[in-house]
Every structure is written in structure tokens, then in C-alpha cells.
Design brief:
Length: 183
């Protein structure tokens, strides 16, 4: 399975592509798409979308995995992050690639074994799991690789349990039946 992991950001969007047989992982490529904060947001989004589309065209991933929105203190930053996530999803959808979304807690738990792990712990485990001589230089690229590894781990677990192959875990509970009101 070839997975494109994306760590969204309006100035730095990390990407990491891995191949995996469900047991071992191999780095294909990773890096960061940089967009100048001096450029208007629409231009940054256009650059991010174009670079993601180029990566998808060059490397043909089978699935894209994106970190889900997390709590942000600054509403403006959260909105910008939402725009970038939308562009990443659009790039994948245009290529007919399914998109999985994982919370930061899922990613860290899957890669490090602890949902509140620090950035350096994530970088270290990415290095170990991908058998790299050094951790990825960029935290954004390391996070993107961790997201891709998380997807492989969750897909492997779903397959082992005989569950249908889903793009990613659903954060939202299935619609619950309304409670009957007893009067």
C-alpha cells in the first residue's frame, strides 16, 4: 500500500509518502511545501494544491491520510488550517484517492504508543519505523510520515478484524436513535 500523509499548515505543509505491506514501512519521499506568509491566503492555497497534485501525479499513492482538526486557541488560525485541509482533500479527490482523517491523539498513539507524546518522540519513532539513519529534518515532514504510518496501522488492524476497509476511523458517532420520551 502506498500512502500519502499530509500535515496541513498555511505556511508549511508537510508531506510524506511511504510504502508498506502492513508489517514494514519504507520511505518513498518526504518534505515540506512552503508558502510565504506575505502572500495572500488564496495564493498559498493554490501553491499547496498544485504541489500536492504534482506529488500525487508523480508517486501515485493509493490513499491520502490527513490529520484531523484539533482544538485551536486562535479561531483565525483554525480557519486557515481548515482551508488548507480542504485544499488537501480536494487534491486527493481530484485524483480519486480516498482520504482518511486521524486525530493527533490517534496518530501519536499509533506511532509512539502514547497519545500525548512530544514532537521529538514522534520524530524518533518515525526514524525507527522507517529505518532511517536520522530523523526527518522537518517536524512537519515527520508528522506527515507519522500520519501515513498511522493509516497503515489502522488499516492493518481493520483487516485483521475482518472489518471493511474504510478510508479512516470515523470521529463522529453514527446517528443515534432519538430517546423515547416517557411522560
Amino acid at each position: 500500500m502506498r500512502v500519502l500523509g499530509i500535515d496541513c499548515g498555511s505556511e508549511r505543509t508537510g508531506y510524506g509518502i511511504i510504502d508498506s505491506d502492513g508489517i514494514s514501512y519504507e520511505l518513498v519521499t518526504c518534505g515540506v511545501i512552503r508558502a510565504s506568509p506575505r502572500c495572500p491566503l488564496p495564493e498559498r492555497l493554490l501553491k499547496i494544491c498544485g504541489e500536492l497534485e504534482r506529488l500525487i501525479g508523480d508517486y501515485s499513492p493509493q490513499v491520502a491520510a490527513i490529520e484531523d482538526v484539533f482544538f485551536a486557541r486562535n479561531a483565525k488560525s483554525a480557519l486557515k488550517l481548515g482551508h488548507v485541509r480542504g485544499v488537501a482533500m480536494l487534491a486527493a479527490a481530484r485524483a480519486r484517492i480516498p482520504v482518511a482523517e486521524y486525530s493527533p491523539l490517534h496518530v501519536k498513539s499509533s506511532v509512539v504508543g502514547y497519545g500525548r507524546a512530544e514532537k521529538r518522540q514522534v520524530q524518533h519513532m518515525v526514524k525507527v519505523l522507517l529505518r532511517l539513519p536520522e530523523p526527518p529534518e522537518s517536524e512537519d515532514a515527520a508528522d506527515a510520515l507519522a500520519i501515513a504510518i498511522c493509516h497503515v496501522n489502522i488499516a492493518r488492524a481493520a483487516q485483521a478484524l475482518g472489518l471493511p476497509a474504510a478510508a479512516g476511523p470515523s470521529r463522529r458517532p453514527a446517528s443515534r436513535p432519538r430517546r423515547k420520551r416517557i411522560v
